Amino acid sequence: MTDLTKLTLAEARAKLAAKEITSVELTEAHLSAAKASDKLNAYVTLTPDVALEMAAASDARLAIGEAGPLEGVPLGVKDLFCTDGVRTTACSNILDDFTPTYESTVTANLWNDGAVMLGKLNNDEFAMGSSNETSRFGPCVNPWKASDSDANLVPGGSSGGSSAAVAAHLALGATATDTGGSIRQPASFTGTVGMKPTYGRCSRWGTVAFASSLDQAGPITRTVRDAAIMLGSMAGHDDKDTTSVDIEVPDYEAALTGDIRGLKIGIPKEYRVEGMSDEIEKLWTQGIDWLKSAGAEIVDVSLPHTKYALPAYYIVAPAEASSNLARYDGVRYGLRVPGQDITDMYEKTRAEGFGDEVRRRVLIGTYVLSAGYYDAYYIKAQKIRTLIAQDFKQAYEKVDLLLTPTAPSPAFAIGEKVNDPLSMYLNDVFTVPVNLAGLPGISLPAGLSSNGLPLGLQLIGRTFDEETLLRAAGVLEEAAGFSAEPSKWWTEA
To answer: In the chain, what are the domains?
Structure first.
């Protein structure tokens, strides 16, 4: 039998439906691949017993013709989604070995549609990071290596485990979350497809919160079609989440018509930032040519407040993080470090439980929310956020989509930027505005750098118009014809 881990999600679904393979066979193949990938540190908790039980149940449903949309498909889950009876830590010491007694809405939707859970995937602690180096379980490693170096590279963050697992064929797809680019940037670094839906499209209930007005769940997959299939199951209204929007979930896969004739694609001049490499600029130009050749009209647009997006984001996000993380006090669940009194216990627990990056963001957030600084920083950042959203709204009066690079560089070495927070934050320069405006965005692999590393292009759509976004992404994907894969160095003895 061919290597079942080489299948795309759509191909596996078709073979399962045709009874050419079983879910148990498919799941066992991915569990074996995951167990042989310790060097990547993508999984923090493998759940083989749960996976095989779910796979067997899927095979039973397939046998009697009662298959769901994702029946028998093995997926990985970012360790930010609560999973009933399976350890969920947000990759932080503060949650210790917390095991939820409930299921996040997004993962419940996937399991209801027949998907199989392989295990929990590595991420930056509380999703705070751009490189997956802040996890309590240690950094996840990118399956790709540069042609001119043997250094281990970051897989991007915070969803580094999700992107690495998909790129290394350790799962057919993976759940991820995007607060400032944490789906799209790791997808760009690993040669995968990362889809960030419109804010409110997927429920946030049962997902460990970072910044509540920015967080959004989405899929990381190997193809645009796979992303459309996964998003169709993940999305939907949820009464338990007040930010969940009650609108119909379209058939995203049906949107992949391959025809973008007449679509207007905007090219924002402000995304040509200082210091962007020539190869990123060249790839962007190539992407414009591909879309033009497919019949799209290219329109230059301006998003004048883009330059303020990064500083505004790094005020709003830490402020919300400071508020959300106040619940981790050592009293109700997770880590507890004894103290002389309750205040001492709070201080010791939070000092030992939170890593450096989380502490940094909590301190920044508490500062900008404090008396005397709230108006000067937080309110001003929220005003800028409104202006950024208005920029996009005005642009979409002229165009249907925007095309930009996903990240300003390919993947960098582990440890290269860990002591330079500002340099690390700049990785999100092209992705953050999308979150501030609540828009959908997708990153897809479009080429390789001079040293053989993946580079991504980003399409940005109107709110709740994921269909047009996916349609154009499918055309761009076909034009790019990206087929490169990392060598399996992590399986060598």
So the answer is: 4-263+398-491 (3.90.1300.10)
